[in-house]
Specification:
Length: 188
C-alpha cells in the first residue's frame, strides 16, 4: 500500500515568529523597567508570562501520515456500484440484500475501512395512488458494511451485508407502489 503524507497543516511560521518576537521584546522591556522602578516582582511575572506566550505561539506546520491512507483526494477516485436490485419490497415482506463493488479508479492505493449505505431519496412512480411515500416507508438493516482492507490502484472489492425492507405502518402506503429508491454510498 502506498501511504503518502497528507499536505502540511498549520499556519505560516513567519507571522507567528514575528508575534512571538514582539511579545518577547515587550516582556524584556517590562523586566528592565521593573528593575529600575523596583517593582521587579510583579513586572517580572508579567515578563515571564509574555515570553512563555510568545514562545507558545510558534508552532511550525506539521505533516502527518494519512490514517489508513484514505485522504479526501483518494476518496474522490473511488467508484461505488450497486450490484443488487431492490425488487420485492412489499409490506410484511422479507428484507432484500444490498450488494455492490468499490473500484479504485485512482493512481494510488487506498484503504477501505467500510461502505455505508443510506437512503438518499424516494421518488413516487408516475400515476401512483395519492398519499405520501418517502424514506420513512423503508428501513435499512446493517447499513455499515466493513471491508477493512487495502484497495490497490485499479482494484475492485465487493461488499455485502446491508438490507432494505418496506416498513409496514398504520398509514396508507399505496403511494409507494412502483416508487424508486435512491441509495447513497459512502466510504470511510
Amino acid at each position: 500500500m502506498d501511504c503518502r503524507t497528507l499536505a502540511e497543516t498549520g499556519s505560516d511560521v513567519l507571522p507567528l515568529v514575528l508575534v512571538a518576537a514582539g511579545l518577547i521584546v515587550a516582556g524584556i522591556c517590562l523586566l528592565v523597567r521593573a528593575a529600575r522602578t523596583r517593582t521587579a516582582h510583579a513586572a517580572g511575572l508579567v515578563a515571564v508570562l509574555l515570553v512563555l506566550v510568545g514562545l507558545g505561539t510558534v508552532s511550525p506546520p506539521t505533516a502527518r501520515a494519512a490514517d489508513g491512507c484514505a485522504s479526501p483526494d483518494l476518496q474522490r477516485s473511488l467508484t461505488i456500484t450497486q450490484t443488487s436490485s431492490m425488487t420485492g419490497l412489499v409490506p410484511h415482506g422479507a428484507p432484500v440484500a444490498i450488494t455492490g463493488r468499490v473500484t479504485n479508479t485512482g493512481q494510488d492505493d487506498t484503504y477501505i475501512h467500510d461502505v455505508v449505505v443510506s437512503i438518499a431519496a424516494v421518488t413516487k412512480a408516475a400515476g401512483a395512488p395519492r398519499g405520501r411515500c418517502d424514506a420513512r416507508d423503508y428501513e435499512l438493516g446493517t447499513p455499515l458494511m466493513t471491508l477493512a482492507r487495502p484497495l490497490p490502484a485499479g482494484g475492485t472489492e465487493t461488499f455485502a451485508g446491508a438490507t432494505i425492507r418496506f416498513r409496514h405502518t398504520a398509514v396508507n402506503q399505496d403511494g409507494c407502489k412502483g416508487a424508486a429508491i435512491s441509495l447513497l454510498y459512502t466510504t470511510g
